[in-house]
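User: Hi! I'm working on a homework problem where we have to compare a predicted structure to a textbook description. Could you give me the structure for the chain below?
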Amino acid sequence: METIRRSGQALPMLTDKFGRRVSYLRISLTDRCNLRCVYCMPEHGVPYEQREDLLTLDEIMRLVNLLAANGLTKVRLTGGEPLVRGGDVVELVRRLSSLDAITDLGLTTNAVLLAPLASELRDAGLTRINISLDTLKRERFAQIARMDKFDATVAGLAAAVKAGFDPIKLNMVVMRGVNDDEIMDFAALTLSNNYHVRFLEYMPIGQVSPYEWRAKYIGNDEIMQKIESKYKVSSIDAPKSSTAQVYRLENGIGTLGVVSPISHKFCENCNRLRLTANGALVPCLSDNFEYDLRAPIRNGETDEQLLQHVDIALSKKPEHSDFEGRVERGGSLRIMAQIGG
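Assistant: Happy to help. Predicted structure tokens:
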């Protein structure tokens, strides 16, 4: 494994055993959510972590500072729903944005609580915002999210536009027989808005049955065929580490993209780790392995010892994801809200 020099000492780089350099950390701030989306959380929720078991802002900042000194450049705040954590989110954004090494700071949200916070988050230094939006229809929103929060989400999106976030990414999890009839409507949003619409393949996260998952799953080749049957589409070069294939409709303002963890794996360019709200490092979303960092942080271990723990977690990062194999083996130990999106 490669090393770098910091303060005269050789420290491990964030490089896995396959030579992939990790520069991106997705940090879950909470496992709680104000929605119950059918692909993410059971209808009656799950037993939540106690507040004292969540990483504090100081603990998160210690870890980010350490990783930023070793190659981390991008951070995205997730949940659960990260804005459920309240004022802590703005303060954390302010602290993270002050780090010179972090050049890309984003947030993924369902936007239900975004309206009163959008400008404050922008002023604090948030550079990107992703809004999870699986339908443009009020009644269907309540069916998918199991909560009637459509107006709040629309208000959050409007507030993000007003605050100056540009572009805004809209993430749609496409499910056959649920919302796949809205693919063209979402694509059309990019004609007159600078939205980056992303169609996400439905992933078997949680205790979903193989039958249910296969019945709802739609590969992104099929999605693009639908779009190309109506629109002239051109491809756009995306960064090598991007998980999306990106396109623009003829005369479009925004872009659309497909994220294909099942049909077209992008593992060879994977540059990310996930940190759960209770301090576990997750090297791969399709794997049940996670490595506890909260204990060594709270036990007072040194930065060098913490980096050794990160190195161990990185050594468990698989070469390729295996979502289909995992669903056959009984699914994941955690639901999506507990891992972090």
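For your comparison, note the following. The mean pLDDT is 89. Residues 3-339 form a domain with the TIM Barrel fold (CATH 3.20.20.70). Good luck with the assignment!
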